[in-house]
Design a protein that fits this description.
Length: 342
């Protein structure tokens, strides 16, 4: 029976052995136990040292090679990259805390593109419906230069980040101190520009909007921006017709349709779009309101469940790219303060 690789990571036991070995070797490289240009022990000796098979060690070394930590010389062995900066991994973390990560799919793609453009790998993580914390995840991801965080962000999360002494940026709108690095969008401006023209023809109809959970400040600000559009276009019966939905909001959407009987519904979030579709799929005889969906969440080009599409992208591509650039600039600044090469 193979022994477990020694680790302070509470989740290490759930990782493949090859990744446990790779993480331990990376830790030794970053701590200086192995210096740039050093030759590693043979695969046989490493296998004996870690109590694993040779194939496990080979897989671990392949992981390190893919991350540019090591390279192989035919008939000579495996060496630490001589150009490696041990204190720097060129890896950024992106973590979605306690929120369904499916709503961040496009954000993940754009952040990954922005990170690649400045020479960084993006490492994605989330703990939706899981029993580990951001601190636990960071313990598994020691080789990060900086961190981007979104989802539910509170004092506990900020303390977990601060304990790591990593440059970081919070993506989104939160009730946190102004000195915390945070990238915000102009939600009112975006919502006004996108929704005013699409909703104006329905000003004298009963309009409802479906957004994400009230616990997220961005969704509270989104709801207020939508109410401002209602007032601007002279819409009647606006009270109560912006619905906050946790998860996919199926039960809340069912109550909205069956009790409020709106003529028009705007569905903003991807999770809520799933709940909306599911309701009408399960209730085919229910009269469906005129439905407008947010194409930021990429619904099908044609559907029996919606009539019009808008692109209400609260965080534009340029803002996400700026978040990555600002973070990498602060990483360079921190290295300069320590007297290291940026």
């Amino acid at each position: 029976m193979h022994k477990r690789i020694p680790s302070n990571d509470p989740l290490a036991q759930y990782s493949p052995l090859s990744w446990q070995v790779a993480r331990d070797l990376i830790g030794k490289i970053q701590s200086g136990a192995y210096r740039p240009g050093d030759k590693l022990e043979s695969i046989r000796n490493l296998a004996s040292k870690y109590g694993v098979g040779r194939q496990v060690v080979l897989s671990a070394l392949n992981r390190l090679a893919s991350l540019d930590y090591v390279y192989a010389e035919p008939r000579s062995g495996v060496f630490v990259n001589p150009e490696l900066e041990p204190e720097r991994s060129f890896r950024l973390g992106f973590f979605v805390n306690r929120v369904d990560p499916s709503i961040s799919g496009r954000t993940l793609n754009l952040l990954n593109q922005a990170a690649c453009a400045v020479g960084y790998h993006l490492v994605f993580g989330f703990n939706h419906e899981e029993d580990f914390t951001l601190a636990d995840w960071l313990a598994r991801r020691r080789m990060l230069d900086g961190l981007l965080v979104t989802g539910l962000v509170d004092d506990t999360v900020l303390k977990e980040i601060a304990a790591e002494h990593l440059p970081y940026t919070i993506l989104g709108h939160y009730d946190i101190p102004d000195e915390i690095p945070q990238v915000k969008a102009d939600i009112r401006k975006v919502v006004s520009r996108v929704l005013t023209p699409i909703l104006t023809p329905f000003a004298h109809r009963r309009i409802a909007s479906v957004v994400g959970p009230w616990e997220l400040r961005a969704d509270r600000e989104l709801a207020e921006a939508i109410r401002e559009v209602y007032r601007r276009i002279g819409c009647r019966d606006t009270d109560g017709l912006v619905l906050h939905c946790p998860n996919d909001g199926y039960a809340d959407i069912a109550e909205l349709i069956e009790t409020e009987r709106p003529d028009v519904v705007y569905v903003h979030g991807q999770s809520q779009l799933t709940g909306y579709y599911r309701y009408f799929h399960l209730h085919p005889k229910e009269t469906r309101p005129y439905t407008i969906v947010n194409t930021w969440n990429a619904p099908p080009s044609k559907s029996a469940f919606f009539d019009a599409k808008v692109k209400c992208q609260l965080f534009p591509d340029s803002l996400l790219a700026r978040a990555v650039r600002d973070l990498t600039d602060r990483i360079d600044h921190a290295r300069l303060k320590r007297g290291e090469r940026p």
